[in-house]
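Lecture 7 notes: from sequence to structure.

We start with a single chain of 459 residues. Read the sequence below before looking at the structure.
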Amino acid sequence: MPGKLTHTEGESNTSSVRAEWQQRTHKPASAPLLARDAKVFLHQSLSSPCVSSIARAEGSWIEDHDGNRYLDFHGNSVHHLGYGHPRLVAAIKKQLDDLSFAPRRFTCDPAVELAEKLVSITPGDLSKVLFTTGGSDANEVALKIARAATGRFKTVSFWDSFHGAGFGAASVGGEATFRSHIAGPLLPGAEHVAPFNCYRCPYNHSGPDTCGLACAQMVDYVLGRETDVAAVIAEPMRAVPFVPPPGFWTQVREACHRHGALLIMDEIPTGLGKTGRMFAFEHDHVIPDIVTVGKSLGGGILPIAAVIARCELDVCGDFAIGHYTHEKNPVTSRAALTTLQIIEDEGLVERAERLGNYAMSRLRDTLRSCSIVGDIRGRGVMFGVEIVHNRDSKTAGNDLAEEIYYRCLDGGLSFKISQGCVLTLSPPMTISEADLDQALDVVEAAIQQVAESKREKQT
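Now the structure, written as tokens:
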């Protein structure tokens, strides 16, 4: 949920580091609410029990009930505009007065305007739209379209990917957290291959510029062997983050053409400007057959997602592929339309590219010689620092990353840890330069302190 500080991926809900931090920081206002939350909500990894409470959120900042304030570099990937953007709040309030709901079979101005706007900003001939209430649903709609259009049922996707929590979305996803607990079979025909990851690729010893693209060749190999794959579904840039090697998506796009498979790009965390392009796939000069967007589409206030497909894929008119109660909700549509207008009017795509380049350049310069930093990577304001025990062996430093995380919380910075050891930093595109520098001060200091502590223990 937006506003909830989620604990680190792979971290136990009973982490001793977490418990010590909560004991130090939580005063009487937060502790009772956390206890009530833990009592009434079903417990699950990555959300409940919660790390802290939230009382207020504005711009790049969140504040708990005890007055602790944090720059939010997580935001569940919804806060592209920051929290409570005044223009967005005003548009939603006005829409509530004008028209608060539309039954699915009655169209309304905001829904049509939003669909037209999405078509206008999406490259190529992606010109047909369907709205859903969440990204998981959007990806499942995309899979249904692919099956209907190709007459096939199999998919190819990547281990470690995330496409949602529904049965279909979890089947094509590759995160163990969303798959391993389910008794019995997931969606049949969901084939997985290793993801692009030049830093750890056993076939790449010289860096991404000399990468042999074994990862792309594996997609081609599986498509050729299976012969009946409906679609490849993937994140154009992994939100971990991992940036694809040059030429990767060109090869995958060509392989899809050769073998008759569609290419579905899941832009739910990466789209709408966060990487310095309106869509992350634009960095790689390819155009997919279907794109899904969500999370930030509702401006960090309301839930809405969308499927955008080529006109030729409008083949499902005789049956239902979505059929959502809020499919053409005027309030969520107005929120999304206004979000897109704000992104354009305030030049936030270009701003994300500039701020991201600055942040990564600064981190690389400051942490160049830090012994526990294995890699610094990303695009736009979606970047990360990989923490390792040993740079040569690339041994993941999960325990070090957890210590850094809580030091950063003490310093007033919240983010998430991906894959156990990647400090994943994703500020709003609206963040001020002063707040960005403050956050970088905090994370750099925490990393250097943990590195020094590690050195002292070894001597």
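Residues 16-83+348-458 form a domain with the Aspartate Aminotransferase, domain 1 fold (CATH 3.90.1150.10). Keep this in mind for problem set 3.
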